[in-house]
Structures are given as C-alpha cells and as structure tokens.
Design brief:
There is one protein chain. This protein is α/β, with parallel strands linked by helices. The chain has two domains: 138 residues, Aspartate Aminotransferase, domain 1 (Alpha-Beta Complex), CATH 3.90.1150.10; 284 residues, Aspartate Aminotransferase, domain 2. It is 37% helix and 15% strand. The protein is built from 16 helices and 16 strands. Bound molecules: pyridoxal-5'-phosphate.
Length: 469
C-alpha cells in the first residue's frame, strides 16, 4: 500500500472509528496511530505498511482454523452467491437448519433433541438465553425462580443482561445502575484458591498440585442453599476457562460435580462456551463432554471458524418443551441476521474440518506444542502460573512467586509485555498481567515455539530480572 493510502486509512480510522475497549484518542495527541491490518493467511496478519505479525490470540479468540482457510472461503462464497440472506422470522434456510441439527448431534446426549436460536455475537446469545430461562420458569409454574448465580470475575458480554450476570467490576461498574441483581459464587480457581493447601511449585499448573477438599463445590452449595427458598433460576458458568477474569481455569471434574449438585436442587446450569466451545478446547461443548447436564449453552466466537459473525443459544429439550405447550406464548426475541446462510455455511465447514482425522491430529499437535512452549516461561522468576486448556495457554505474571502477589495494576506489566511483543511481530492481548497464546489450529509447532519465544523475550525486556516494587 502506498504511504499516502496508508496514511489515509490511519487518518479515517483515528477520526471516525470507535474501537471497542479502547480509550478514544485525545484530539491532537501524539499517540501512535492504530495499526491497520490488511491481509491474513494462516497464523499471520499483515498491516497496511507491510509488516507481518503472528496472530497470537486468534483475533480476539475467534479465528479457529487460520486466516483464509480454503474450505471456509469456498463454503462462504458458494453460499453467498446462491442465497446471501433471508429472514428467520417464520422462514428457514438449509444451512441454518443443518447447522442446528449438527450442533444438537455434536452436543448429544444432553442436547440431542434440543433447539437452537442463532444470533450474531456472544453477548446476544447470552441475552437470548437469559430471557428464555426467565420465561421458562414462569411456564413451569415457578415465577419466583428469577435469581441468577454467577462466578466471581464472570464475563458474559456487554449487553445489559449479559453484564448483569457478569461480575467484572473493571468492565461493567459504570453501568451498575442499569443492571439487575445476581448472586456471586466463589470462582473455582486453584491458583488463587484460599482452600488450596499446596505450596506453589515451579513447572506445575496449580490445578495439578492442588490440595483441597473441593471446598469450591461446598461454597456453591452454601450459596444456592442460602438464597431465599426456591428463588434460584440458574448458575451461569463459563465452561473450563474464565477468560476475562484472567484465564482462570477450573479443575477437571468441577463442572460435572457442580451440575449434579444443582440438579439435586432443581437449579439450572447455563454454560457460556463462547470462548471455549466450538472446537477451541476440543469438543463443540466442553461441559457436555465433561458429563455436565446444562439446560443452555451459548456458543459464539469460533463457531463460524472465525470468519463471519455467528453465535447460538442451544437449549435442552426440558426448556424447549415448556415453550411447545399450547398455552405458551410467542418468545418475543430475535435478530435480523439470525441464521444468516453464509455464516451458517462457514460453521458447517468448520464442524466438518473439526471432525476430520487430519484436523484432529493438528489439534492435538497444537495442544502439545503449546504445552511444550509453556515450559519456557517457568525460566522467568516472575512467572507464577502457567496453565493450559486445549488451544489456550495462559501465563500469569506475579511480583512474588511464593505469595502469588500480583504487581500493582497501574504498572500495566501485561500490556507492556504485549506491546513489546507487537514490536517483535506477535499480536496478542493480555488480561491484566496474564499473557495469552491462543493461535489458530493451523499454527505449526515451530510457529508456536517462535511465538512463545517472542512473548518470553518481551517479558524479559519488561522485567529484565526478578522484579518487585
Ligand atoms: C466467555 C465470553 N462470553 C461472552 C462474550 C461476549 O461475546 P461477544 O464479544 O461476541 O459479544 C465473550 C467475549 O469475549 C466471552 O469471552
């Protein structure tokens, strides 16, 4: 791109675009221009100035197979030239119907006879689920069950309902007067769990070395039982990983046990698998694969392989049946692009890729490469925990390994490390002082190694030796 065209794109961006989760630029400030990306191929992205970067966080956790994957491009272009879009209000299309059926099959046995409502982003999938669950309790003759539980640090999106069942003070505090009340359940997070008696051990994920009596489940039980008699509707749980909370990862078996405990109390489980589902951590639905029995699962992000906006609210037969009763009214909720054919075609192609032997081997190779690369970070004395769930590797930076004390947030260690990584050709975004590597599935073991080395070198640049303040 010519220098002039490049400057024009940057000027238009800085003048007219309002970037999510970004402070608007102060006019006349000398802040560097936003990096404008122009092209993507596999695990790499190019900016308008011709610089190349690794896509270290799969473009905010969406791009699943790699940029420009031929199977996804073919599926979308074929579909878009046949039928670009059609209303889902009383009308159907082949792709949405097939995708709904395939999702239910992939999420069997819990959802084998469930139903799927499509929308375009994760927050909307959560919003639809909230309204479905709210009305479902009324249809079940339990109008008092309207209280939602959520984990500490939960993040389910930025619409009003999704914020209400989130617990992210940093993101949502300014809007608390718009939200409804939810009740907080302690986060199942071994690294900082007050009940984990194990001393920190270098080289070991805190979940593996944990010594506890599953107090997190006892606490969940206590919160459910403390809620005024029979008022709890459902627990909202991000399955396996709470991304925005700092890539907090649950111990293996938590979801299944939590699900059983809730079931005994007739409290529903609503799983947010927008980050971890659709193949990012293996199965389409990690909670179902773990033996949990959610009533609702929200999918998004990599559902379309990361190429078009698509999300889904998948409900169990138990919920669908309530709405199938003759006395049930219309569920007044929907979106103009619900079931968009090209987006659904991309999702079908993505599911097909995921089920292919070649891709399953790739997935396993990527997970193994991430695990191997994770070991590098333990060489740095300020690394407190290295944890992995499928295609997600998280590295937590702390001031003090033994006490797990974080650095003061105003030092922005995570952001500075990731800025140093951009200069070295790796794009990723931290959550606080937790560094993340979540490359697309096409990334080779050598590329993963390279990305990890860049991130490690960037960490060493920001914290040259063991650092405290
Ligand atoms: C777990 C989880 N739920 C919901 C959302 C919201 O999804 P979206 O940004 O597509 O609205 C996100 C986004 O990061 C997420 O990580």
């Amino acid at each position: 791109m010519s220098t002039q065209a490049c400057n024009q794109a940057q000027l238009a961006d800085s003048t007219f675009v309002w970037h999510p989760f970004t402070k608007l630029k102060v006019p006349e400030s000398t802040q560097p221009a936003t990096r404008i990306l122009q092209r993507g191929e596999g695990s790499r992205l190019w900016d308008v100035e011709g610089r190349v970067y690794y896509d270290g966080n799969s473009s905010i956790w969406t791009c699943l197979h790699g940029h420009g994957h031929p199977a996804l491009i073919e599926a979308v272009t074929k579909q878009i030239s046949k039928l670009d879009h059609v209303s889902a209000l009383g009308l159907g299309n082949e792709q949405a119907a097939q995708l709904a059926a395939e999702l239910c099959a992939a999420m069997s046995p819990v959802f084998s006879d469930g139903r799927v409502m499509f929308c375009s982003d994760g927050s909307s999938a959560v919003e639809a689920a909230l309204k479905m669950l709210h009305l479902a309790r009324r249809l079940r003759g339990e109008p008092q069950r309207q209280l939602f539980l959520r984990f500490g640090g939960a993040y389910h999106g930025d619409t009003i309902g999704a914020m209400s069942v989130s617990h992210s003070t940093g993101f949502h505090h300014p809007f608390c007067d718009l939200m409804f009340q939810s009740m907080t359940v302690p986060t199942p997070a071994c690294y900082r769990c007050p009940h984990n008696k194990a001393q920190p051990e270098r080289g070991v994920d805190a979940r593996q070395s944990r010594r506890c009596e599953w107090e997190c489940l006892a606490e969940l039980e206590a919160v459910v039982d403390s809620a005024p008699g029979g008022t709890v509707n459902a627990l909202w749980a991000e399955s396996l990983v709470q991304g925005a909370a700092g890539f907090v990862m649950q111990p293996q078996g938590y979801l299944r046990q939590a699900s059983e405990l809730l079931q005994q109390r007739e409290v529903w489980l609503a799983c947010d698998e927008i980050l971890t589902g659709s193949g990012r951590c293996g199965p389409v639905s990690p909670s179902v694969a773990q033996g949990a029995r959610p009533q609702v699962v929200a999918l998004g992000k990599s559902l379309s392989g990361g190429v078009l906006p698509l999300a889904a609210t998948v409900v169990s037969r138990e919920i669908a049946q309530l709405y199938e009763q003759p006395q049930a009214t219309v569920f007044y909720h929907g979106h103009s692009y619900s079931g968009n054919p090209p987006a659904c075609a991309a999702a079908l192609a993505s599911l097909q890729l995921l089920s292919g032997e070649h891709n399953q081997a790739r997935q396993q190779a990527l997970y193994a490469a991430l695990e191997e690369s994770g070991k590098l970070f333990w060489q740095h004395p300020n690394v407190g925990d290295v944890r992995q769930e499928g295609g997600i590797l998280a590295v937590e930076i702390v001031q003090d390994f033994i006490n797990r004390n974080p650095f003061p947030p105003q030092l922005h260690i995570g952001t500075r490390v990731c800025e140093a990584a951009v200069a070295r050709g790796l794009l990723t975004r931290p959550v606080g002082d937790v560094l993340v590597l979540m490359p697309p599935l096409c990334t080779t073991a050598d590329e993963v190694k390279d990305m990890a080395q860049i991130l490690f070198d960037s960490l060493c640049e920001v914290l040259p030796s063991r650092s405290t303040v």
